[in-house]
């Protein structure tokens, strides 16, 4: 028997025994060849054989993966722009219910888009840095926090921006109270009440209450679960002058996990330049891309300041600190004024702690750990969903982050499922929160950033059962 | 010679030699009698004699003070409500210039309304508490900050509210990013763009940019430098339904330092109840009243939730932490939603540090120290102004806090003075910032919360010289 068949059989057996679970990535051809002392050709032939047998699949620029029995989302739900709709009071109340359950330690949280626990953050090192600042510079606490905040952090943010293709100047960085305040200030800087803002569909659930609170209307633009925002639809809307601003997550979207291609990002930057409409780029998850070579932000292609980029260290370093930032392009002075008249500045203690951590150089190592961990956890959860959830369930194939967006069979109402799960102390995010319309009522968002311990797995399995029960009762 | 005349002469000599400078408080009759082994009657007779000679003055509920040669502000500048005016771009730029100079250690700051330096705060104790939390609970940093924030701090805020006459429930306390964000959220909760908001005249300078950013118009209501907001004018405006909300500082006003009488506070609470218009009560300085018996807030008389009270620990405990709070009365749920959709929550590390400090019981002692210190510093600065500033200068007689509002002779333009002082690296706040109109162009605000060291005194003296030079050149 030839070497490549032996290798293929060995891998097939590992897949059958779930030693290599659905969704997991195989070693690259180069790695596998080196590890086993085989030639490239042998490994390539083995992988092709497994691909032919339907056991693995190649994903562009990412490598070979064990095929999951969970189909990937391939199409956006609708191709036409959505209606302009206000946020319903019921939806607003739903957010409050989710938040309440997330405060309760007896609830298992499959919803919160933020890892909890010391394993996910360099908390010990941050604690040491903060304690040293408190010890050596107690006068920091005795000074009024004034903008623009510590130069060290703003320099580090600018330096790190290079990895995402951005040339930012430290003096243009504005520290904010998390990325949420950055979005809030950006919208207030470039819109008037009554304006219409273009948003991805689905989009970050908390964007809807924010838009509603500012008297802004949302126009939902179809967003492909793998390719992102439909630029054709966007261009039509821009040409018709229907948008005062656009909010988008072109790099690791929440909840879809997708990233736009480089060409699409360039086109998006060109569109907002051409039509002179500000793009508020939410880059919160951009540092959590799974691919080793990071795709740049749209801001990287911004020629004349129409892109306002927002991010924070909430998801990767210190969720409690709420240190966010933005670079507001041509709207910098306006945003600086708004920040001062809205909440003055950020605590120097926290900003300086993060600045010193970034300067000390452990952040890249930490990010690599997170990317590997989340990529693996997302794969594991995808695979478990394929086993436990109703047939016909589809899920996104995230390019980064830790979120999965699920489409369940159309007769399942995830708001009903949400309440059924809540009664069993399991928290999920129902799809209705991700749109101003009701189009995602059979969808839900799961978060794969928590420890996949017995409790998490039991909750996930039970959620699948509840979904199947609902499907059966409605059939 | 009788005992009371001997005592009076001794004190008169001390006043002449400035051992007892203008504005300083005499010992109470009881203290003086005890210290010197004299009877109450003897001391009282001596004080009356000094009062007859015009050397000291009695201030209601506060005691006897050495008369300053600086006349007190007795009248508001105008009695009619001000025009509705937008914030000028020039004024907005002025704020930026002030802020820039406040970043520079080579500038002497007579402007910033926040003490700088470890002497003014229990920074060592706060640093120890924060360091202990970091050491014992590093997982706090590894949790996403979610509302409503630590119960300990909210309970302490409610408990301390009793001292200002307020019965607050911990579950109704909303933590905010300083009092500035509390004002921002309160205004967004109860107004629509285009609405008119009643404000005191003068008022906190940063309120104007905030109102402008929310598309709100300000209507200036005359505010007496000793008695506060004109309730007669307010009632007229309320009866004519011209106000969507009122923002006021009835207890230790910024910049005037005045507090409304108890009867006026009750009437104000009654007015907003009767006309059903929300009052946003800025109680930022209420804990810094000089009188030992604290006057209650207007919130203390709020029967049905029309008063939204805002405050913070920025001025008294930890300026860098930016931990503020509000109780929004009948608008609580709306404010909670706005907070989450605007900036999510406050860092637990900082909120818990302040909660533990308050629980440990040193805050009242600390506040007593601050009140004594600021009362004395305000008096000292008043006296120096009388010596160094142009004849005709008048100043407020603050009931608390550390701010002085000055009216210079009408031919002095304090914006010109501001730039002249800035050229000599001295920062002040010109009066134009405190109104939407130009009525305070000969006024300025000074801050007496900094260490009155040689550098501060030299800057103050130079400011007086610059004012006199301007007066001479314009005469």
Describe what this molecule looks like in 3D.
Two copies of one chain form a homodimer. The first copy, chain A, has 475 residues and is α/β, with parallel strands linked by helices. The first copy, chain A, folds into three domains: 3-66, Arc Repressor Mutant, subunit A, CATH 1.10.10; 85-118 and 365-474, Aspartate Aminotransferase, domain 1 (Alpha-Beta Complex); 122-361, Type I PLP-dependent aspartate aminotransferase-like (Major domain) (Aspartate Aminotransferase, domain 2). Helix content of chain A is 42%, strand content 14%. Chain A has 15 helices and 16 strands. Chain A has helices at 3-16, 29-36, 40-52, 89-102, 123-136, 151-161, 178-190, 207-213, 231-239, 262-275, 332-343, 348-360, 363-388, 414-423, 454-474; strands at residues 56-59, 63-66, 108-109, 173-177, 196-201, 217-224, 228-229, 245-248, 279-282, 307-312, 323-327, 394-395, 403-407, 426-427, 429-430, 443-447. In chain A, the strands form four sheets. An eight-stranded mixed β-sheet of chain A has the order 4-11-10-9-8-5-6-7, with helices on both faces. A four-stranded antiparallel β-sheet of chain A has the order 12-13-16-15. In chain A, strands 1-2 form a two-stranded antiparallel ribbon. In chain A, a hairpin with a 3-residue loop joins strand 1 (56-59) and strand 2 (63-66). In chain A, helix 1 (3-16) packs across helix 3 (40-52), helix 6 crosses helix 12 (348-360) and helix 14 packs across helix 15 (454-474). The N and C termini of chain A lie far apart (51 Å). The relative contact order of chain A is 0.15. The mean pLDDT of chain A is 91. Chains A and B meet through helix 4, helix 5, helix 7, helix 8 and helix 11 of A and helix 4, helix 5, helix 7, helix 8 and helix 11 of B.
């Amino acid at each position: 028997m030839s070497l490549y068949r032996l290798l293929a059989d060995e891998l097939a057996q590992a897949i059958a025994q779930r030693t290599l679970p659905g969704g997991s990535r195989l070693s690259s051809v180069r790695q596998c060849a080196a590890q086993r002392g085989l030639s490239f050709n042998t490994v390539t032939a083995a992988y092709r054989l497994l691909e032919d047998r339907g056991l693995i699949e190649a994903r562009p620029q990412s490598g070979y993966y064990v095929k999951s029995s969970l189909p990937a989302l391939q199409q956006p739900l609708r191709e036409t722009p959505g209606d302009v709709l206000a946020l319903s009071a019921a939806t607003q109340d739903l957010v409050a219910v989710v938040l309440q359950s997330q405060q309760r330690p007896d609830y298992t949280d499959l919803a919160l888009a933020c890892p909890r626990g010391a394993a996910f953050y360099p908390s010990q090192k941050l604690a040491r840095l903060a304690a040293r600042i408190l010890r050596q510079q107690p006068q920091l606490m005795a000074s009024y926090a004034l903008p623009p905040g510590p130069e060290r952090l703003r320099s580090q943010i600018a330096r790190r921006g290079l990895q995402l293709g951005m040339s930012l100047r430290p003096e243009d960085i504005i520290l904010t109270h998390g990325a949420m305040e950055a979005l809030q200030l950006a919208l207030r800087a470039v819109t008037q009440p009554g304006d219409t803002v273009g948003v991805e569909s689905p989009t970050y659930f908390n964007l809807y209450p924010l838009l509603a609170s500012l008297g802004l209307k949302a126009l939902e633009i179809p967003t492909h679960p793998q390719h992102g925002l439909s630029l054709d639809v966007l261009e039509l809307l821009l040409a018709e002058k229907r948008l005062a601003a656009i909010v988008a997550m072109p790099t690791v979207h929440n909840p879809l996990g997708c990233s736009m291609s480089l060409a699409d990002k360039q086109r998006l930057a060109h569109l907002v330049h051409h039509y002179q409409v500000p793009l508020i780029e939410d880059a919160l998850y951009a540092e959590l891309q799974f691919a080793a070579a990071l795709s740049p932000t749209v801001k990287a292609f911004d020629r004349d300041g129409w892109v306002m980029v927002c991010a924070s260290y909430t998801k990767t370093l210190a969720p409690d600190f709420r240190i966010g930032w933005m670079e507001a392009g041509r709207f910098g002075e306006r945003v600086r004024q708004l920040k001062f008249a809205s909440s003055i500045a950020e605590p120097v203690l926290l900003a300086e702690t993060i600045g010193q951590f970034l300067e000390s150089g452990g952040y890249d190592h930490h990010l690599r750990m997170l990317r590997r961990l989340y990529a693996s956890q997302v794969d594991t959860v995808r695979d478990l969903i394929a086993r436990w959830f109703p047939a016909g369930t589809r899920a996104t194939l995230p390019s980064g982050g830790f979120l999965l967006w699920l489409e369940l069979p159309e007769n399942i109402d995830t708001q009903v499922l949400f309440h059924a799960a809540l009664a069993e102390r399991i928290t999920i995010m129902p799809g209705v929160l991700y749109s101003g319309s009701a189009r995602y009522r059979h969808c839900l968002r799961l978060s794969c950033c928590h420890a996949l311990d017995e409790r998490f797995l039991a909750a996930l399995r039970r959620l699948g059962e509840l979904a199947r029960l609902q499907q059966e009762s409605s059939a």
